[in-house]
Amino acid sequence: MLERLAAVVSRNGVIADLADMVAYVKEPRDAYHGRALCVVRPRSAEEVAAVLALCHDAAVGVVPQGGNTGLVGGQTPDESGAQIILSLQRLDRIREVDPASDTMTVEAGVVLARAQEAAEQAGRYFPLSLAAEGSCTIGGNLATNAGGVHVIAYGTARDLALGVEVALADGRLLSNLSKLRKDNTGYDLTHLFIGSEGTLGIITAATLKLFPLPRSRATSLVGLADPRAALALLSLAKARAGSALVAFEIIPRIGVEFVLRHQPGARDPLAGAHRWYALIELASPAESGTEELLTELLGEALERGVAEDAALAATLEQRAGLWRLRETLPEAQKPEGGSIKHDVSVPIESIPAFLAEAEALVLRQAPGARPVPFGHMGDGNIHYNISQPEGADRAAFLARRDEMNELVHGLVRKYSGSISAEHGVGRLKRELLQKVKDPVALDLMRAIKQALDPKGVLNPGKLL
Ligand SMILES: Cc1cc2nc3c(=O)[nH]c(=O)nc-3n(C[C@H](O)[C@H](O)[C@H](O)COP(=O)(O)OP(=O)(O)OC[C@H]3O[C@@H](n4cnc5c(N)ncnc54)[C@H](O)[C@@H]3O)c2cc1C
């Protein structure tokens, strides 16, 4: 098998040495690790397709991998040592930026931050933005339908793709790199592959939507009494700022305290403490106006008693400081001990009730546990993280993971929410999906999988 793979991608495109494979067989948090026959690193879509044809013939499982930043174990092989990891990192060409069509065609291994830069160099904007953008790839973003902080204004990765090129399990290459905004010629195959986590095909390139480059931005941290006030502020911000509202994140006081305690240089821009905070950002292609709009909006929120206090960033450094409070929160949770995490969504109007009920249930079940729910309130996605009680035994708390999951996910179902808002299913939520997804939807998903990958070689053991 190694010889045949080397014939396709050349010798230096195959890594079979155990020490050299270490970085690929586990993910950075070390939550998942496996073993692999080898890592294959093709340089073109044709090579990816040829590798798949070989693996299909030999019935060898293929685990696609981009930046290896996924949080649900989707990019990690199993323990058998029989699967190959197909790394897309060398497919890293920006094939075209077309400002007139507002599109960009890039290969799957292009790192998200590089795609953003390429758009900016052409005077355009690619709005997908997440904390892992320095290492995650466009292929991984589309395979997981990544969300991030701008979904409220621009949608998820799915909404940002016009077309994809995909290597199929049997080695054929589907070329669907359309720049068209209107094309009603049957089933939407592009969207079938987006969010499929490498189980239906391997994305080798994509045509993405571009937007006008924002030339003015205004960012604020707002102190709030509770999530109900956050909901009122969100409604007000949407009504006053419309499409200029590009981010609306919430953080509880305990989250701000963790960041202040553990992130050097972090500071609280508000004089007093507040139980909750919203991080709001407005952006516009106009050269000015966002700061005035945000100032007016905050004035109204303060006057109406929706907000308790607010700090507006006056410099780029201050803006970065406000974002640091939000982006470094997961890192700042680590020194506080074990943490049980959930990536869930509920309808936006239900967020205050969901948060109140979840906290009561968690504290009743695990007195002293410290809920730290934060995230993308603007699109209904809450990262419901629970830190262990202060001074408690880490392992004993983490052993209660299933119990906490049951509780949070049960509540998510009560509010007609989703057990995976943006991170996907992978290995982490595969069994849970079987319990919560509509059985007819699961039947259809299995039928699609069977049609596209009858031998089950694509990312075996993930999602379904
Ligand atoms: C610090 C941090 C912050 C994060 N923040 C967010 C966030 O705000 N929003 C969010 O949605 N996610 C977030 N994530 C999760 C992660 O960054 C995203 O899921 C990202 O889209 C994964 O991209 P990747 O290139 O690293 O993919 P990988 O981790 O390599 O793979 C992810 C999945 O996609 C499959 N895959 C990868 N490339 C391809 C391809 N070309 N074709 C087919 N399948 C493929 C893999 O098999 C795997 O199932 C965060 C992760 C970290 C570490």
List the helices and strands and how they pair.
Layout: H1 2-9, E1 14-15, H2 18-25, E2 38-40, H3 45-58, E3 62-65, E4 84-87, E5 94-98, E6 103-107, H4 112-121, E7 124-125, H5 138-143, H6 151-154, E8 161-167, E9 173-176, H7 189-193, E10 202-209, E11 211-212, E12 216-224, H8 227-241, E13 245-252, H9 253-262, E14 276-284, H10 290-303, E15 309-312, H11 316-327, H12 329-333, E16 339-340, E17 343-345, H13 351-365, E18 370-376, E19 381-387, H14 394-398, H15 401-414, H16 430-436, H17 439-452
Parallel strand pairs: 2-4, 3-4
Antiparallel strand pairs: 1-2, 5-6, 6-10, 7-11, 8-9, 8-10, 12-14, 12-15, 13-14, 16-19, 17-19, 18-19
Helix pairs in contact: 1-3, 8-10, 8-13, 13-15
Bound molecules: flavin-adenine dinucleotide (FAD).
Walk me through what this model shows.
This protein has 464 residues and is of the alpha+beta class. It has four domains: 2-87, 2-Layer Sandwich (Uridine Diphospho-n-acetylenolpyruvylglucosamine Reductase, domain 2); 94-212, 2-Layer Sandwich (Uridine Diphospho-n-acetylenolpyruvylglucosamine Reductase, domain 3); 216-331, Alpha-Beta Plaits (2-Layer Sandwich); 337-420, Alpha-Beta Plaits (2-Layer Sandwich). The protein has 17 helices and 19 strands. It has helices spanning 2-9, 18-25, 45-58, 112-121, 138-143, 151-154, 189-193, 227-241, 253-262, 290-303, 316-327, 329-333, 351-365, 394-398, 401-414, 430-436, 439-452; strands at 14-15, 38-40, 62-65, 84-87, 94-98, 103-107, 124-125, 161-167, 173-176, 202-209, 211-212, 216-224, 245-252, 276-284, 309-312, 339-340, 343-345, 370-376, 381-387. The strands form five sheets. It has a five-stranded antiparallel sheet. A hairpin with a 4-residue loop joins β18 and β19 (381-387). α1 (2-9) runs antiparallel to α3 and α13 (351-365) packs antiparallel against α15. Bound molecules: flavin-adenine dinucleotide (FAD). Residues 63-71, 74-75, 88, 108, 130-132, 136-137, 139-141, 143-144, 146-148, 197-198, 202-203, 422-423, 426, 459, 462 line the site of flavin-adenine dinucleotide.
